[in-house]
């Protein structure tokens, strides 16, 4: 180690000096450094003793730099700037990516798994763009999307199946007749049916339950599937949803399946991204995480 390094003051003392010189107040400097005011004052006393000179004048209301302190602080700040610059060169900045999803997919599937995402992708700064309208990869700066529909989505896009559309009916267990695990198929239409924008109840009743719908006595309409699911959890009626969106609620007992039938829909869920990506490596990492997470149990 060079001899000059051996005579350097402690780094914490220099940090306390730089912060105190900026604020001219030990208390505010202590709050910035997340230490006590006494610790800052002790660092400064030790630094002054080490340098053999006084750096601050202690005034009734704050501090003032001495001539020696004013001469010392610019070089200390420059030294900290150099340390920061050198560290940034070694530490890669997170890649900023935007994922486009529907609000229901975001709240019911993606958000509960974000901690897992951060664990697997610590160098990806993910922006979640949740909208019912179709976002543009170019105009909206979207890097990757989860879209519901039927391929093909476009020649310039890569597409992976994430979830099939398996439609089931769900409700709160409070709606089940006492001592039973299901609601009789003929009784379904006598409950409040919670509709979303997909309006799948007539098709579901015919294909999954085997009955044609007559005029509904009670209904509620929502513009998002997630709202219909939340209403079902609250005991307001029976909703239809893709199985993967309610898997966690079923596992936790917040929802039950009042009829065993299900319907295979035609609007599956896909991971979609441009073939030419702005950030290929992190975008591929997000794609792989989505596909892997889709195969893991609900959280």
Radius of gyration: 30 Å
Query: Biggest β-sheet: count, sense, barrel?
Result: 5 strands, mixed
* Order of neighbouring strands in the sheet with most strands: 4-3-5-12-6
Helix/strand-derived category reads alpha/beta
Please give the oligomerization state of what you see. single chain
Counting DSSP H or I runs of 4 or more residues, the number of helices is 11
C-alpha end-to-end distance: 52 Å
Mean pLDDT: 92
Q: Could you tell me the number of beta strands?
A: 12
Helix % is 40-55%
What is the element string, with H for helices and E for strands?
HHHHEEHEHHEEEEEHEHEHEEH
**What is the molecular shape?**
elongated
Protein model, in words:
With 299 residues, the chain is an alpha/beta fold. Helices cover 41% and strands 20% of the residues. β8, α8 and β9 form a beta-alpha-beta unit.
């Amino acid at each position: 180690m060079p001899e000059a390094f051996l005579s350097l003051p402690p780094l914490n003392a220099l940090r306390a000096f730089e912060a105190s010189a900026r604020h001219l107040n030990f208390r505010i400097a202590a709050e910035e450094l997340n230490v006590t005011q006494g610790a800052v004052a002790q660092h400064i006393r030790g630094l002054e003793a080490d340098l053999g000179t006084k750096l601050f004048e202690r005034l009734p209301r704050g501090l003032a730099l001495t001539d020696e302190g004013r001469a010392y602080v610019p070089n200390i700040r420059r030294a900290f700037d150099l340390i920061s610059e050198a560290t940034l060169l070694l530490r890669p900045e997170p890649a900023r990516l935007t994922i486009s999803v529907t609000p229901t997919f975001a709240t019911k599937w993606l958000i509960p798994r974000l901690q897992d995402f951060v664990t697997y992708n610590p160098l990806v700064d993910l922006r979640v763009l949740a909208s019912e309208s179709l976002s543009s990869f170019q105009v909206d700066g979207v890097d990757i999307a989860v879209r519901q529909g039927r391929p093909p989505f476009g020649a310039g896009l890569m597409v992976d199946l994430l979830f099939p559309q398996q439609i089931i009916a769900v409700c709160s267990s409070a709606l089940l007749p006492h001592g039973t695990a299901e609601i009789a198929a003929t009784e379904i239409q006598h409950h409040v049916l919670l509709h979303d924008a997909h309006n799948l109840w007539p098709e579901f009743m015919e294909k999954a339950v085997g009955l044609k719908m007559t005029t509904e006595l009670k209904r509620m309409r929502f513009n998002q599937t997630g709202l219909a699911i939340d209403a079902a959890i609250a005991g307001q009626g029976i909703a239809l949803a893709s199985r993967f969106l309610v898997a966690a609620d079923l596992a936790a007992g917040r929802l039950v399946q009042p009829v065993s039938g299900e319907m295979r829909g035609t609007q599956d869920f896909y991971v979609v991204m441009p073939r030419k990506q702005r950030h290929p490596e992190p975008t591929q990492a997000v794609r792989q995480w989505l596909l892997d997470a889709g195969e893991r149990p609900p959280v």
